[in-house]
Amino acid sequence: MIKPPAVDVCNPLCGKCRRPCRQPAEVVLVDCPRFLPYPFKVAKHRFDQLDLFADKS
């Protein structure tokens, strides 16, 4: 039995998937019919809300 590559040496698309079938990093994947993404939570907000009503002193 062939062991799939680890998450850190696999294709970026496979690194975002919960399934154990991982392709090597050298393989170019555009789409995967078995892709099952992780449920994600944003740790921090990337963009600050615009302050439209601030005093412009």
Structure description:
With 57 residues, this protein is low in regular secondary structure. The protein has a domain at 1-37. The chain is 7% helix and 0% strand. The chain has 1 helix and no strands. It has one helix at 12-15. It is elongated, with a radius of gyration of 19 Å. The N and C termini lie far apart (69 Å).
In DSSP terms (H or I, runs of 4 or more residues), the helix count works out at: 1
Beginning-to-end CA distance, first to last residue: 69 Å
Form type: elongated
Helix percent reads: under 10%
Name the average pLDDT: 77
Order of helices and strands: H
Q: Can you count the beta strands?
A: 0
Layout of helices and strands, plus pairs?
Blueprint: H1 12-15
Keywords:
about 55 residues; little secondary structure; about 5% helix; about 0% strand
Structure described in brief:
The chain has 57 residues and is low in regular secondary structure.
